[in-house]
User: Fold these one by one.
Assistant:
Number 1:
Amino acid sequence: QVQLVEPGGGSVHVGESLNPTCRCTGMSEFVFTQQRVGWYRRAPGRERELVATNVIGSNTLYAPFVKGRFTLSRDNVKNTLDLQMTNLRPEDTAAYYCCWGTSWGQGTQVTVSA
């Protein structure tokens, strides 16, 4: 059974960093590489929006609001998906969700305060 677990959220102040990780279990290393992966977020009162997404062999696509602050990286041996977030802003406050193909994690909360 495929499961995605996302530890690594938290509460920080403006300008600080967080590094949530998505651990994908229930699949082999080869299978992990066969699907699109990504991070999305949903802020209170807003629709879910793309943060970053990657397909093996292609460049990572970032949302315009990332503006060089976030980096998506995948480890195809450990089956993990990291989102390194720097220079965080209050508007980055949201629940962050990772995805592998059509499977989703439960989400991890990121809160940025002034």
Note: The chain is about 5% helix and 45% strand.
Number 2:
Amino acid sequence: VQLVESGGGLVQPGGSLRLSCAASGFAISRYSMRWYRQAPGNERELVATITSVGFSIYAADAVRGRFTISRDNAKNTVYLQMNNLKPEDTAIYYCNKEFLWGQGTQVTVSS
């Protein structure tokens, strides 16, 4: 049972990235899935949740309208599309299901 994130990298302000979270050992269709992020010196914060029925909830006003969480149950994968990225979005992004965490993927927004 694991979560594996990918898709992070270095991007200029205003750019886009799509993060992926591939799940194995369980079916994501049965669970709410979440993306968190942790910037240096900060606590880990919830970014977005997608419920088992596909309802999306964005926890932070700072990302609403720029980030989109989605899921592909057939691929057992959760995504986070991030547009109009800002330097303050720089963080390690983690996928989460209840008490299960991925290893994280680094997103750096810098010119």
Note: The chain is about 0% helix and 50% strand.
Number 3:
Amino acid sequence: VQLVESGGGLVQPGGSLRLSCAASGLTFSIYDMSWYRQAPGKERELVAAMSSAGGSTNYVDSVKGRFTISRDNAKNTVYLQMNSLKPEDTAVYHCRARFKWLDYWGQGTQVTVSS
């Protein structure tokens, strides 16, 4: 199983980025998918999550109204659209796939928000 994130980078405050997480080696459509982030010196936190069928989403309060999680089961990919980025969004962003006891993580992609 592989989860490969992409789309991170350096962006100015107020800018946007779209992260992608491409999954392989699993039946993507049955997995609940989520994005986590970890900033230097801080614990990893859940940013956004989406159920396997896409009917349920939840977000950490600090990103509500700015970030949107979505998935394309035909492409085995989950996305995180990030708008109105703030310096405090700077972190390594990881995707996670879970189904019952099966739990997989990607290596992460760096997002830096700075002027």
Note: The two ends are 37 Å apart (CA to CA).
Number 4:
Amino acid sequence: VQLQASGGGSVQAGESLRLSCTVSGIRINTIASIAWYRQAPGKQRELVARTSIFYGTNYADSVKGRFTISRDTGANTVYLQMNGLKLEDTGVYYCNFPNYWGQGTLVTVSS
């Protein structure tokens, strides 16, 4: 099983990015819960958003209303649409489901 994260980059505050996590080796429609985490420089990794087959979606308070997590079962990919990016959204973003982590994609937001 592999998780390939992509879509990171350097943007200015207020702009948007869409992160992708393409999964191989397992169908994502068999995974109950998939999440995006991020780790800012000097800080612990934190949950950003999660999509659950049973419980729907949930978001960190800091990204509610700006970020949207979604699944595309045809592409076997999980997305994180990030709008209205802020300086504090800077960090390495990882996709995750139980026992598996992607390699991370860097998002840098500047003023």
Note: The first strand starts at residue 2 and ends at 6.
